[in-house]
Amino acid sequence: MVAEDYEAVLKGKYPGKDHAKRVVDLIRKDVPDANGILYLESQVTRMMEDSDEPEPFRQRRYFYYLTGCNLPDCAFVYDIQSAKSTLFIPPINPDDVIWSGLPVSIDEALAQYDVDEVKLTTELNATLAHLGSENPKSSAFAIANQVSDHVSFIGLDNKNFNVLKTAIETSRVVKDEFEIAMLRKANYISGIGHRAAFARAKTAKNEQEFEAAFKERCYSYGIKKMSYDPIAAAGRAAATLHYVPNNAPLEGKLNLLLDAGGEWNNYAADITRTFPLSGKFSKESRHIYETVLKMQKECISVLKEGVVWDDVHLLAHKIAIDGLLEAGVLKGDKDEILKARTSAAFLPHGLGHYLGMDTHDTGGNPNFGDKDKLFRYLRVRGTLPSGSVVTVEPGIYFCKFIIDPYLEDPVHSKFIDKDVLDKYWDVGGVRIEDNILITKTGSENLTDVPREADEMEALVSAMTKMNPYFPPTPDAEKWSDPNYYTRPAPVAPPTPSPPPEYSAYRPEFGAGLAPPPPPRPLRPVRSATNLTGAHAPQQSGFLDPRGNYQVDFVVDEIPSPTSLSPAPLSPAPSNEIRRVKSSSALSARLDAQEDKPKDSSKWKAALGEAQYFAGGLISHPAESNKHFSIIRHSHALIWYRGPATSVPITILSDEPLPPTRTVWLQQKGYSGNMGMTLKAMMRTTGTWIDVTPATKTGVEHIAEAEERGIQRDFKRFVKKASGRMKKHLPRETHIIRIPAAATDGYFRLVLCSNADGKKVLCGSPVFRIASTSTDVSTVRGSSLSTMPLEMGIKVASTIGSQVAKKYTGVAGAVVEQGAKRLTPANATIKKVATKAYHGSGIGNAVSESWKNGKAGRYDPLISGEAMEPLTILGSDEGPEAPFPFKFAGKVVRGTGIATRELGIPTANLSEVGDEVKMRMGGVFAAWARVLPPKESEDFDDDWHEAIVTIAPLRNAPPGVVLRNKVTVHILHDFSDTLFFDLRMKIMLMGHLHPSSPNLSNEAFLEEHTRDVMTTTASLGRENWGPEVSVSAVRAVKSEKGFKERLGDATGMVQSQMDRIPKHWVGVRSEAGVLRDHVYGNGGLWVER
Fold first, then answer.
1. What predicted TM-score, i.e. pTM, was given to this entire model?
2. What is the pLDDT of residues 73-126, one digit of tens each?
3. Which domains does the chain have, with CATH numbers?
4. Contact at 8 Å (CB) between 26 and 141?
5. Are 894 and 998 a contacting pair, CB within 8 Å?
6. Whole-angstrom distance, CA of residue 866 vs CA of residue 364
7. Sequential DSSP letters for 885-935
């Protein structure tokens, strides 16, 4: 049955009534006089915990099998005697209509589903009572735990909650024509998804790109859900049967195993392919691949009605043994190897399973308690009936966790050659899986995805030859056609709209296998220019850590000033800042959230006006020379907003960039553009700032809207390019962090060939860095043509300063109110106290303490050197300065990745000051104590050993600035106790080593194990205990003199002031400059 055939079948109704009759026949085999009703409920709507959003909906398969209905909160009744089916749907809820529109009506449901009658669920109990009264001795057949409490079977004498479930599961094994058509369509679309994944082999940098490519293609063809979470396992990870992370880098990996299938109206596809990432199998990989392919082909060839699945599974093992003997991995007599079950080390799972509405469909009767390890995980036992669908998925895997016990067992180790085995670990695992329909005389393969080794290499290699910069050639279009490899070529389902034009610059689009869906329209943003009806620039999508846009793309021509309304700029009145009740509340709010000022609309309006002029006056988007070009993807006015301020550029060239390339920030002086060029030619780089981005990332970490803007800039460049510029190809996109050392003024970025900046390759377009901290020197580098820009910046600066003053005034008011409690009320006493303050020298001491406290308060307190493995911290006398180091924080929800993937439960702390996070980076041995909630009993609030990490999160996405976070792993089992929103005290006792964010999971676990042993051994000594350390801290504090106490007090005030995020209104502060240098170069770069 080809594509048009199954589409014709699927135009009809899902045969729910036929299924109901088959189920009744099966029930009567167990209950011969069965009479009464079948009762089923659909899945109910459930809300997510702590949310007003519903959980993802998945229909109950038993309900769907008899109705074909995918609606929630429904019920179904089948009268066995009259063979009448009734579907009950929820009544209209007016509140739901406001948000979700009208639900399916009774008439629509009757037309759509294969039922005799449709009623509302409010009539359910009355209908059941009526049916019971007509047949007094009848039974209600239902499924245990799937009957709601409000349902009453009045008049139905017997209730049987056992046989219905078994009867439906048995009936589901043999598929009818409609079900097979659903499986065909799921396979067809899933096959297109697999081809899309093949196309990513060369350009992909991470496993997750294959999952994304598969899902995108399936969704664009109408699939709503995956049959299961796709498995995209590269290299050795492919030896894990149900690999979960899908997020490992591909560098150095040989093959990728993709196990993925989409679901069409609840019917699943389950397809696996393994292919070489380079386009060419290694010698070892190819041998294993061809062995697995032979296993699959020969197993499929024997399939037909009545075949015993155990025998087919045994055949797969025999062929696997032959292949491993030929490779030299196994040695000895093949019959003895089979008898010893040594092959289970390399093929530990069953050959396949039934497929239908569930991936592992019902009716297989597995025996997971089988003492024979060869058959223990076989999900189908017994003979195969005609009309059933099974997966045939043989595999050979090289998993150390599974194989190592075999190597240690003399019964098995004598059959395994360890030296040869060592050559195969990097193969990981190979699995090939197709979906097979069993017929009376043979079988039919429903899966149509290439599987021959030469075919796979040719397919992947063809994708590697695509030029990611220019559109593919006409000859390459055949690779984008999903019908190219089909046998026979199925007809694709109709698409809802003609294919849109798409960019060939994105490498992953270079070999698109089907027309991508139309891009979402870009939503314009508000700015001062469009408040008066002018054009609004499109936001770039470069988000800072608080979700705000840092820069803007100029996506259209800037309108002339005459197009603006002549009315003066009149921004909407701002909202008053809500005063907090206490300084601690203010501190918590600013430290935890660091929200923008609420009344910054005037500031935004003025900034938008200044950016409007900037875009019109110095908006040249690209600079080029003979060999290089640099495109600036932002406005020409960059408003300084703290350490995450950035400028995005792309470097193009006619040859690959030198690996030692660097990027420098050069300020424009009174000599203008010519002066900047002459200084570069003369290699005068004394005042340049090295801003070479520190972190390499992938295009997958660039937001979709942001990448579309970059591609749009590429198109414009190509359109305008002439001469040698036509040979300039995009090499790298940089998101350059602008350091605080770059004061206000005009700048450009300079690309150099090496680290000393001596050889200049190209300069970028000029841009203006501005803040509200203006003075006369900041206009340096401007010209007559840019004076309107300076006027706009002046307006923005004035308004921004007022906003900042008002915002910081809140903190000032809180501090002042608190100070009143300590200030004498009597005027005479005040006068005497003031004179004493200055006359005694206390005033000078305070001033000196304030000055000294500024310098170095964010400098690291530790050297950052790593310890030797498994050593003991310090001496037995106790920790040395700066330890013990105390701080506290609030436990907040994290990602859960450490617990889920590594088995290491961690607590994430917020409200920890920058003086801790920026000065104490690394991994520490520590004591931790959770403060109990009020009115709690039996709460464990003792001090416990802990490992504290102060570093960017391991799984954090790349950012322009990576800020340190505090995570705590307490070495104590609290059972299922949750600490969210509780306070935790930390006492750092010693530095273990710097954080290593790029370690693999295996290496990280090994490192963590060493840390646990070191921490436990170190803190077990008498002078390292928590009580001794707390006493030591108190003793040090009590012994401090006046000068030290004064330093602590001023430091505390400075810390509170530092938490005020004045940079959000463009104000540069001393604290911001001090913090900025700690972040280093920062920035990101993407290889094109």
1. 0.49
2. 999 999 999 999 999 999 998 888 888 889 999 999 999 999 999 999 999 998
3. 6-173 (3.40.350.10), 177-465 (3.90.230.10), 600-671+686-798 (no CATH), 885-1020 (2.40.30.30)
4. no
5. no
6. 55
7. EEEEEEEE----HHHHHH----EEEES--HHHHTTS-EEEEEEEEEPPPTT
